[in-house]
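Now for one protein, fold included:
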Amino acid sequence: MELSTFHKIYDFKMPMVYMEKNHFNNKEALKNRFCFILIEKGAGIINLNKKNVPFIAPVIFCINENENIYIDKELNIKIKTIYFHPSIINGILDFENIRSMPEEFLLSTIQDCEYMKPFTQHNDKFYGKINIGPLTSKRLSCICESFKKESTLQNTDNWPCRSRSYIMEILFLIQNAYSESYIQNETVISEDDEEIKSIITYLINNYDKNITISELTKLFSINRTTLSSKFNESIGESIISYLNRTRINMASIILRDTKLPISEVMTRVGFNESTHFLRTFKKYTGMSPKSYRDNYCWMN
């Protein structure tokens, strides 16, 4: 697959392109491009380098040229994808020097490399997945649509420069969201167990509702003991712990990306009692919801 945008009049191409849903499933594609994935709607499980990683929209994935990724399970997802080569940002950059940053690099070039760290600096704790809030998601979606329109219609002579500027704006917003303060310990499903995958998919699609163990045992035709044992073995924590951590992660995203009342945030993520919400939020973040917003809300 040629992941470039071809000029409609002149004989040249730009190593960047907008793609619709699921084109990143092509394993050949990522051998010579970075891949930015915006999941605006839905939830499911992505297999990233043979790791099963659950996701809840809105979320972004920053995938580099050495990785393999495909959607394992999904429910009503909406995706935007942009492929690009590092040279789009800076003409001297390639997949090797962007990681080594030679001494002769100018400060501006080093800064360009820094903006692409979410794509290059992956490890056992960070797989390129960044949870984002509704406002950031809306802004990224608008930029993707602008990129798609500009690179497809090519109505002006400046379309290559303008398209490039949209990718730079996307990288700026990613960098703003990419912070150790925001990177949570990601859940990885250790076993390729279809039953556990189905249960996880159900939980992340219904975390805002009142979910009970009894309901799960009936829904998935499994007894309580077997359910608890299999879930702990695969995920490394209990169902209630996983559900509460998922809810608090979502609450923290909304708190830092909006000015919604804390009481509204609480009910949106599935808590009905303020004392329980405050206690659980502090358990997983080390601070109260108000303190978290005061420290991390970009709108402050």
About this structure: The two ends are 44 Å apart (CA to CA).
